[in-house]
């Protein structure tokens, strides 16, 4: 009886096991909620077709992204196997033990040469010049500009502009031209405004916008090796750049006090502004006629040069890292091996992702694929980024606290704001023992 | 066992006992789980965060928490920006709660008389406080829009920038809060007003007392206890305001303590420091509430 019972149970167990499909391997990638995340989901669906491994790109609104990711890291949670983290998270992610070190992977696949140099430097390596890597450059991005081609090419506007400023109305090559054009098109009575820039001080928007000016004016945030800030962030060049950024704020649409990528794209889609600052990753929707009625008349250009000819842009974009608390690290590593393949990088670019593969970026095919890819390619070799130290969020908060009242609130001077910021940053670096 | 006997025979005539539930069953089924829940989810985190407030702990790093004594409290109380946050919060609480009491009590006075569809009107007036804070923040942002917002249009203010103007942003947030929460004050005031004995007004009328005299000598003193309860609740909530201000604007002039606390705790991950700030806020809320409760007791005695 006992044997019969055992036999029955074994048979039933076998029947259940054979009836159940083999449980598919799953990977979860965590990223901010924006168009490139949708492109990535399309790309990883192809990985699923190829390997059977189900990859899900889980997203959260960008304002929540940092908080949600680090809450999960802090809890040592395994909800995410990979994360496409901001470049400034590298310090906290690596020294906090949240990211798996990928130095061997980097060397094995020679990624230093496969990926564009700026993306390796800012999305993958920490500390700077250490030769230690924590992420694979995934989405290259930087700040660029969109503009209304029809306004710029209108013969009457061109003539009026030339009469007023003494040179041709065209895509601005310098910050001075950018300012002049913004002033020229700023006509509140016609509900038409000169320019849309980032002003939101909730996270990094305002700082990225200001960086765009500081870097092109030849300034720097500090010495990333020694953490010296006095004489850098408050240098004459940085002060002039901040003054220039504030000058641009005068030509923005009314109520432009808490604006980031959504509002800046709206400035173009709603026909409000002549020019708009935004990350390249947000430009695809400006070419889509269903989301932008002015799609045919929208053009793009790279961040213009400063008074001395320096031309840089603030870096956006992210690298993909393996979360050290994931129980599928090996599977995640296999996914990365697939992701860096040349054909996959090419496909990533085709889907709308901004590949960091140097070969794809250089190809004619990529540069001619969209009206902004060439500007993106040029920009990606002239980018600089914010501090990537673990205490970056404090530095960012201090920057917002000093810059916002000057740019938006018209309080104090640029010199006062940047002197105060230099002091704040110095105290923070002292607090974390960076000078020891 | 002795305890069990005492508890189970405490009140045999209670309704629960009539249903067949002994006090012991009620204790085990409801009281103990509630106490356990409170200890696990309220008391323990409260004490644990008190410990963290004396450490340099950062939740984003794997480093252990080091005891730093009162350093976090010293740092916070020496930070001029934190004092600015305190001042902004105090100003906001005064404007917002003051506005809610004036509007809420005023509307309650108007509603405290018979008129057609009174029930429907009262219900409609309560709608704002039933909405989500985030939704209210988002649609008031649209209402305040300088280009096409209805507020500028209705008031003929042209392109007045409510939220971009550092001097007006706090008032804009307070107006939104007043709109949302005046109904709460109105509801409690209405309950208080309807409980005032009618014969007092009749006596006052016979004595030819004026309207103001009647209001200050009869209405206000009798409604005061319930009005103070509304003020206590609203002050505590206004002190903790986060959602509306965070959604509407990012002006430094609207950065209240809870917004600063959020940034410190969840953007900068300064866990120890933010725990200390949370405790400072807790002490302040408890102190303010105590002052109100004293007044409430005095009002009741009268």
Descriptive account of the structure:
The complex is a heterodimer of chains A (436) and B (302). Chain A is α/β, with parallel strands linked by helices. Chain A has 20 helices and eleven strands. In chain A, the strands form three sheets. Chain A has a five-stranded mixed β-sheet, sandwiched between helices. Chain A has a four-stranded mixed β-sheet with strand order 6-7-5-8. A two-stranded parallel sheet of chain A has the order 9-11. The termini of chain A are far apart. Chain B is mainly α. Chain B has helices at residues 2-8, 15-18, 23-52, 71-77, 80-111, 118-126, 133-143, 150-155, 169-194, 198-206, 211-239, 243-248, 257-267, 271-301. The radius of gyration of chain B is 25 Å and the shape is globular. The model of chain B is unreliable at 1-8 (pLDDT under 50).
> What is the makeup of the main sheet of chain A?
5 strands, mixed
Helix and strand element order of chain B: HHHHHHHHHHHHHH
Rounded to the nearest angstrom, the radius of gyration of chain A is 24 Å
CATH level-3 fold name of the largest domain in chain B: MetI-like fold
Question: Structurally, how many domains make up the residues of chain B?
Answer: 2
- Biggest chain contact: A-B, 34 and 26 residues
Estimated helix fraction of chain A: 40-55%
**Strand runs of chain A, count:** 11
Mean of residue pLDDT of chain A? Answer: 91
| Second-tier CATH architecture of the largest domain in chain B | Orthogonal Bundle
CATH architecture of the largest domain in chain A: 3-Layer(aba) Sandwich
Taken as a percent bin, the fraction of beta residues of chain B is under 5%
List the helices and strands and how they pair.
The complex is a heterodimer of chains A (436) and B (302).
Chain A: H1 2-19, E1 26-32, H2 35-51, E2 54-60, H3 62-74, E3 82-86, H4 90-95, H5 103-108, H6 111-114, H7 117-123, E4 136-139, E5 143-148, H8 149-153, H9 155-165, H10 175-185, E6 193-196, H11 205-216, H12 236-249, H13 261-269, E7 273-279, E8 298-302, E9 313-314, E10 318-322, H14 329-339, H15 342-351, H16 358-362, H17 364-367, H18 373-380, E11 383-384, H19 392-407, H20 414-431
Parallel strand pairs in A: 1-2, 1-3, 6-7, 9-11
Antiparallel strand pairs in A: 3-10, 4-10, 5-7, 5-8
Helix pairs in contact in A: 2-15, 11-12, 19-20
Chain B: H1 2-8, H2 15-18, H3 23-52, H4 71-77, H5 80-111, H6 118-126, H7 133-143, H8 150-155, H9 169-194, H10 198-206, H11 211-239, H12 243-248, H13 257-267, H14 271-301
């Amino acid at each position: 009886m006992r044997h019969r019972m055992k036999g029955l149970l074994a048979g039933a167990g076998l029947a259940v096991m054979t009836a159940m499909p083999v449980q598919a391997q799953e990977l979860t990638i965590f990223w901010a909620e924006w168009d490139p995340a949708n492109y990535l989901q399309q790309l990883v669906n192809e990985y699923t077709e190829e390997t059977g491994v189900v990859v899900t790109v889980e997203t959260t609104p960008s304002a929540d992204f940092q908080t949600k990711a680090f809450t999960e890291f802090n809890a040592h949670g395994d909800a995410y196997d990979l994360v496409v983290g901001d470049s400034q998270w590298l310090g906290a992610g690596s020294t906090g033990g949240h990211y798996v070190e990928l130095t061997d992977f980097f060397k094995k696949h020679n990624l230093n040469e496969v990926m564009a140099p700026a993306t390796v430097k800012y999305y993958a390596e920490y500390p700077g010049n250490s030769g230690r890597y924590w992420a694979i450059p995934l989405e290259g991005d930087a700040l660029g500009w969109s503009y209304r081609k029809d306004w710029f090419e209108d013969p009457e506007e061109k003539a009026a502009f030339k009469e007023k400023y003494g040179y041709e109305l065209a895509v601005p090559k310098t910050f001075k031209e950018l300012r002049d054009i913004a002033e020229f098109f700023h006509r509140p009575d016609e509900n038409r405004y000169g320019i849309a820039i980032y002003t939101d001080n909730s996270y990094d928007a305002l700082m990225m916008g200001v960086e765009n000016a500081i870097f092109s004016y030849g300034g720097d945030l500090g010495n990333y090796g020694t953490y010296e800030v006095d004489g850098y962030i408050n240098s004459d060049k940085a002060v002039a750049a901040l003054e220039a950024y504030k000058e641009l704020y005068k030509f923005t649409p009314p109520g432009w006090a808490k604006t980031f990528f959504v509002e800046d794209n709206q400035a173009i889609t709603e026909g409000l502004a002549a020019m708009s600052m935004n990350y390249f990753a947000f430009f695809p929707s400006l070419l889509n006629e269903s989301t932008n009625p002015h799609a045919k008349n929208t053009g793009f250009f790279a961040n213009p040069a400063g008074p001395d000819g320096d031309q840089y842009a603030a870096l956006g974009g992210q690298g993909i890292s393996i979360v050290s608390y994931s129980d599928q690290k090996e599977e995640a590593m296999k996914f990365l091996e697939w992701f860096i393949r040349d054909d996959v990088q090419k496909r990533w670019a085709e889907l709308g992702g901004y590949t960091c593969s140097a070969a794809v970026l250089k190809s004619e095919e990529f540069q001619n694929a969209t009206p902004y890819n060439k500007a993106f390619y040029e920009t990606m070799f002239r980018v600089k980024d914010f501090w990537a130290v673990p205490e970056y969020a404090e530095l960012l908060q201090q920057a917002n606290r000093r810059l916002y009242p000057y740019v938006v609130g018209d309080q104090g001077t640029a010199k006062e704001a940047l002197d105060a910021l230099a002091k704040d940053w110095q105290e923070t670096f002292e607090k974390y023992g960076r000078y020891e | 066992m002795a305890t069990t006997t005492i508890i189970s025979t405490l009140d045999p005539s209670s309704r629960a006992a009539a249903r067949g539930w002994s006090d012991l069953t009620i204790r085990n089924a409801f009281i103990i789980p509630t106490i356990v829940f409170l200890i696990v989810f309220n008391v323990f985190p409260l004490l644990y965060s008190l410990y963290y407030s004396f450490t340099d702990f950062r939740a984003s790093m794997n480093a252990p928490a080091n005891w730093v004594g009162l350093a976090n409290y010293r740092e916070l109380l020496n930070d001029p920006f934190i004092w600015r946050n305190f001042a902004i919060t105090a100003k906001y609480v005064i404007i917002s709660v003051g506005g809610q009491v004036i509007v809420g009590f005023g509307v309650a006075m108007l509603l405290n008389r018979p008129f057609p569809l009174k029930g429907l009107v009262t219900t409609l007036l309560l709608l704002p406080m039933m909405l989500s804070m985030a939704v209210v923040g988002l649609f008031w942002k649209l209402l305040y829009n300088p280009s096409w917002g209805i507020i500028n249009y209705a008031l003929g203010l042209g392109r007045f920038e409510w939220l971009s103007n550092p001097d007006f942003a706090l008032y804009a947030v307070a107006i939104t809060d007043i709109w949302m929460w005046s109904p709460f004050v109105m509801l409690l005031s209405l309950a208080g007003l309807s409980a005032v004995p009618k014969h007092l007004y009749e006596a006052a009328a016979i004595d030819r007392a004026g309207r103001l005299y009647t209001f200050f000598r009869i209405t206000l003193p009798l409604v005061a206890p319930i009005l103070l309860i509304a003020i206590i609740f609203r002050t505590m909530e206004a002190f903790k305001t986060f959602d509306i201000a965070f959604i509407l604007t990012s002006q430094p002039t609207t950065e209240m303590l809870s917004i600063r606390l959020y940034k410190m705790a969840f953007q900068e991950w300064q866990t120890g420091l933010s725990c200390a700030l949370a405790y400072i806020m807790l002490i302040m809320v408890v102190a303010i509430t105590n002052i109100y409760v004293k007044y409430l007791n005095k009002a009741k005695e009268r």
